[in-house]
Design brief:
The protein is mostly helical and about 260 residues long. The chain has two domains: about 130 residues; about 80 residues. About 65% of the residues lie in helices and about 5% in strands. It starts with a helix and ends in a 5-residue tail after the last helix.
Length: about 260
């Protein structure tokens, strides 16, 4: 079930229980009890973000250079911040329905701190195991073989790492038609984001900004693949769990992969 729909269902169940006990929206006590639903949701989303980061990492063929640690942490922090802002905004608006003007309840900051630890530490543990536990090492050929790879695209991207001990120098060219298709797919996802009621306003603004940055980058003669992967990977970490946006994002992934972006 979609996270927001699940949260809404739990809110309805919570409120029925409150009214059946004769408590109802009784100010700060009600707000504190309701807050537990949102902090629990934040904890679950932190775990989902970690799994999304692992998926993104595997899509890059599980690179083990240490620069990937900082990249995953950056994506995870961005996704968690969006999730937190979205949940906090929904929580405050829900309280306002009952005339309760309360922006924060004790426990929110603690829940966010714990979620930050989850998003920071679990990817590090995952990478440590890949590097140090033989049974978890990414599958690699027993004897690395240098391979010269040529991809018929426009826009040199330099050298591609193809595995331990091997390097393939490639001239990658982004086929004009496919790049145009990707920009169109980004525009469609942007439009879907603008219409979606499943994304909080602050999170929506950040996601649209990333999509706009990616669209501008794709208009360059030589788009920077690192920046594109950072923006689009971050978008995917957030919208991947939102059912209403998945079809549009899947289209983005399809055209991104066609020009060599492993989303």
């Amino acid at each position: 079930m979609d996270e927001w729909l699940e949260l809404e269902s739990k809110q309805d169940e919570f409120e029925r229980g409150e009214f059946s006990r004769g408590r109802g929206p009784d100010g700060s006590a009600f707000a504190a009890r309701l807050s537990k639903l949102y902090t629990d949701s934040l904890e679950r989303r932190a775990c989902e973000i970690v799994e999304a980061l692992k998926t993104v990492h595997k899509s890059f063929n599980s690179p083990l250079d240490y620069s990937v640690d900082a990249q995953l942490l950056d994506w995870g922090s961005h996704a968690l911040s969006n999730a937190y802002q979205g949940l906090e905004g929904a929580y405050v608006r829900h309280l306002q329905r009952f005339g309760i003007q309360l922006a924060h309840v004790s426990g929110w900051e603690h829940a966010y701190a714990l979620a930050q630890v989850t998003v920071a530490n679990l990817p590090r543990r995952y990478l440590w195991e890949l590097r140090n536990v033989p049974s978890k090492h990414p599958h690699q050929s027993a004897v690395p073989v240098p391979i010269q790879v040529t991809i018929n695209n426009t826009g040199t991207i330099g050298a591609l790492q193809t595995g331990a001990g091997s390097r393939a120098n490639a001239q990658q060219q982004c086929v004009g038609g496919v790049t145009s298709d990707l920009r169109a797919a980004l525009a469609a996802l942007r439009e879907a984001l603008e219409r979606s009621e499943d994304v909080e306003p602050d999170a929506r603004r950040n996601l649209i900004s990333d999509l706009d940055n990616a669209a501008v980058e794709l208009q360059l003669e030589r788009p920077n693949t690192g920046r594109l992967l950072r923006w689009l990977g971050g978008v995917g970490a957030v919208v991947g769990a939102i059912g209403s946006l998945q079809p549009a994002y899947e289209t983005v992934k399809t055209f991104a992969r066609a020009i060599g972006l492993p989303l």
